[in-house]
């Protein structure tokens, strides 16, 4: 029987918030990924980059404040750097875990560019929080410099950038080829490097694509059986954080749409995950999304925990 294909989207807690935390976090993440690889799944791993791309962009902006705007490092270049920086730590952690278990398996990181629509309304309405958390005062100072900020889910203020919908993953065939050759493939990091297609020339645009959205697109294009979104909660809830909170184990697309209309899922955190799951379910028969904790991934795939979204 053909091996089942899984796209795993890693959230912030699989990576940590700084260089030191990342090294520790990816070691644990690698164990979970190699456990699944040992069960015979074909695995494609995507990841977020919110804290990391913000850190890189800040470092680049501060390199020389007097540089002309045309010489400054653009945001898509920082996204590319974040793919390399996170990709190499994940790849090496997985390599080490394979070595420790004496497994003859390969792991590759593919830098990936994702086409977006130049006319996407998201360019007019920045919604993706990146970088470190700031106080309201710090945010006001940034706003005065013309940098947009927003309050992020009660956790403080962050810089906010445009997050257009992913339309086309340019390295899809490379990803497919490596996956079919048995590699664990790390790709579409940070949502992919956002580009527009100008008569065949790929030109970076100032944005950060949502990694759950690109993971859903990747999973549908690759014909994955499962999209697994690993985050900081074991299950999705309705009335989240309230007295009448109810954890959900099973969610049909129809129910999900009703809950979305009731605004049960927070914008910028759980909402894009549910929307990504709905799009994946609607893209082909039998396509299911699991949302759970990193350490519960195997149990979730075995149907023991997490929230599964399906038609
Ligand atoms: N209805 C909900 N059910 C469960 N979690 C929710 C809900 N609404 C918001 N959340 C929050 O969404 C968070 C996951 O989003 P986020 O931190 O952005 O994810 P990521 O793991 O991709 O970095 C959870 O940790 C939880 O605090
Ligand atoms: N690009 C992206 O979605 O990053 P986060 O998951 O860290 O927000």
UniProtKB/TrEMBL annotation:
<dbReference type="Pfam" id="PF00696">
    <property type="entry name" value="AA_kinase"/>
</dbReference>
<dbReference type="InterPro" id="IPR036393">
    <property type="entry name" value="AceGlu_kinase-like_sf"/>
</dbReference>
<comment type="similarity">
    <text>Belongs to the carbamate kinase family.</text>
</comment>
<comment type="pathway">
    <text>Metabolic intermediate metabolism; carbamoyl phosphate degradation; CO(2) and NH(3) from carbamoyl phosphate: step 1/1.</text>
</comment>
<dbReference type="GO" id="GO:0008804">
    <property type="term" value="F:carbamate kinase activity"/>
</dbReference>
<keyword id="KW-0056">Arginine metabolism</keyword>
<protein>
    <recommendedName>
        <fullName>Carbamate kinase</fullName>
    </recommendedName>
</protein>
<dbReference type="InterPro" id="IPR001048">
    <property type="entry name" value="Asp/Glu/Uridylate_kinase"/>
</dbReference>
<dbReference type="GO" id="GO:0005829">
    <property type="term" value="C:cytosol"/>
</dbReference>
<dbReference type="GO" id="GO:0019546">
    <property type="term" value="P:L-arginine deiminase pathway"/>
</dbReference>
<feature type="domain" description="Aspartate/glutamate/uridylate kinase">
    <location>
        <begin position="4"/>
        <end position="285"/>
    </location>
</feature>
<keyword id="KW-0418">Kinase</keyword>
<keyword id="KW-0808">Transferase</keyword>
<dbReference type="InterPro" id="IPR003964">
    <property type="entry name" value="Carb_kinase"/>
</dbReference>
């Amino acid at each position: 029987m053909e091996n089942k294909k899984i796209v795993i989207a890693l959230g912030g807690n699989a990576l940590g918030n700084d260089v030191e935390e990342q090294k520790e976090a990816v070691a644990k993440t690698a164990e979970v990924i190699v456990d699944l690889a040992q069960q015979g799944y074909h695995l494609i791993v995507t990841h977020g980059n919110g804290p990391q791309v913000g850190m890189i962009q800040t470092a680049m902006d501060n390199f020389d404040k007097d540089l002309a705007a045309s010489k400054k490092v653009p945001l898509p270049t920082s996204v590319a750097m974040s793919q390399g920086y996170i990709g190499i730590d994940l790849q090496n952690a997985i390599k080490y875990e394979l070595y420790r278990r004496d497994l003859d398996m390969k792991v590759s990181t593919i830098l990936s560019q994702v086409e977006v629509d130049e006319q996407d309304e998201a360019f007019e309405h920045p919604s993706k929080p990146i970088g470190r958390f700031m106080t309201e005062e710090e945010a006001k100072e940034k706003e005065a410099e013309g940098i947009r900020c927003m309050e992020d889910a009660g956790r403080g203020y962050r810089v906010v950038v445009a997050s257009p919908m992913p339309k086309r993953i340019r390295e899809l065939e490379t990803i497919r080829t490596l996956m079919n050759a048995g590699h664990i493939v790390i790709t579409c990091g940070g949502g992919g490097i956002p580009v527009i297609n100008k008569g065949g020339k790929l030109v970076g645009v100032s944005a950060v694509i949502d990694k759950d959205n690109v993971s859903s697109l990747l999973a549908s294009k690759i014909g994955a059986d499962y999209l697994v979104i690993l985050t900081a909660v074991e299950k999705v809830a309705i009335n989240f954080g309230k007295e009448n909170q109810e954890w959900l184990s099973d969610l049909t697309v129809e129910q999900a749409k009703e809950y979305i209309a009731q605004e049960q899922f927070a914008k910028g955190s759980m909402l894009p995950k549910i929307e990504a799951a709905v799009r994946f379910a609607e893209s082909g028969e039998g396509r299911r999304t699991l949302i759970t904790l990193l350490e519960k991934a195997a149990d979730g795939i075995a149907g023991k925990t997490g929230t599964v979204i399906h038609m």
